[in-house]
Amino acid sequence: MASTVWKGHLTFGLVSFPIRLYSAARSESISFNQLHKADGSRIKQVLYCQAEDKPIPRSEIVKGYEYEKDRYVVIEDEEIKKVAPQTAKVMEILEFVKSDQVDPIYLETSYYMAPDEAGEKPYALLFDALNKTGYAGVAKIAMHNREHIVILRPGKNGVLLHTMYYSHEIRKVDEFRTDLSLVKEKELALATNLIEALAGEFEPEKYHDNYRDNLLKMIEAKKEGHEVVATPEPQQAKVVDILEALKASLAMAKKPAASETVAEPAVVEHKPKRRARG
């Protein structure tokens, strides 16, 4: 399993048992290095002291908090540890709420919560109880120099933990609203039928990042000396009558294996580069 990101005890009521948290997911993307255009060598970032006008080693760097313009108070790592709240070592469940009341917009980062030694039985009890009652736990935990409110909910094989945005961190946009008076019954019926026609089981493994795949193909093609060809622009049909568009969409959705006829656009064309005449 992945490395531990937090270790401590979970408490609710008089029940307490040891747990560990592991990162449940991480995003993947293609990363590029910065090179000097003239000779293709790697660029190195230098840590520089403005006052002394010279580069300095990382060992001479400390944390500083700016309390006034250009005035800082130095903070040591040990001092940060001293003022850490109790939730840095003990995660306390504050209450239980119905899972369907938790708006997903509040969920930030996901973790697997696993029992540590001697915590298997109370962990299993909590997991089973959350499953059968439909409740989620709301707890408080300190990690990564911040105190988080977290949601504990039962996953497929164990308890999942999600850090939660605080209410003031959610952007309340007054303009973000929907005028339902614009919807007509016939259009709603067709839209509902189209949704049902396109309905399927949620299987995350069937979705792929085509952008990442195309970048990898492009990199491989350039390694082999082939030219890169742009992806064709998608053809967007102009919607004139939403009712007719829904009817046409529903007819297409009902065709067997319709999704299998859609081909991925070509990303690279395997043509060797022309060599400059010497």
- Percent range for helical residues? 10-25%
The average pLDDT is: 85
Q: What best-fitting shape do the alpha-carbon axes yield?
A: extended
Radius of gyration: 27 Å
Query: How would a textbook summarize the main sheet?
Result: 7 strands, mixed, barrel
Low-confidence stretches: 257-278
Termini separation: 57 Å
Count of spatially separate domains: 2
H-E string? EEEEEEHEEHEEEHHEHE
Structure description:
The chain has 278 residues and is α+β, with helices and mostly antiparallel strands. The protein has 2 domains: 4-26 and 82-169, Ku70, Chain: A, Domain 2; 180-200 and 208-272, no CATH class. It contains 5 helices and 13 strands. The chain has helices at 77-82, 120-133, 185-197, 210-223, 242-253; strands at residues 4-12, 15-23, 48-49, 54-55, 63-68, 71-75, 90-98, 107-115, 135-143, 146-154, 159-164, 226-228, 268-272. A 7-stranded mixed β-barrel has the order 1-2-8-11-10-9-7. A hairpin with a 4-residue loop joins strand 3 and strand 4. The protein is extended. Mean pLDDT is 85; it is low at 257-278.
What are the defining features of this structure?
extended, 7-stranded mixed beta barrel, two-stranded antiparallel ribbon, Ku70, Chain: A, Domain 2, 2 domains, 5 helices
List the helices and strands and how they pair.
Elements: E1 4-12, E2 15-23, E3 48-49, E4 54-55, E5 63-68, E6 71-75, H1 77-82, E7 90-98, E8 107-115, H2 120-133, E9 135-143, E10 146-154, E11 159-164, H3 185-197, H4 210-223, E12 226-228, H5 242-253, E13 268-272
Parallel strand pairs: 1-7
Antiparallel strand pairs: 1-2, 2-8, 3-4, 5-6, 7-9, 8-11, 9-10, 10-11, 12-13
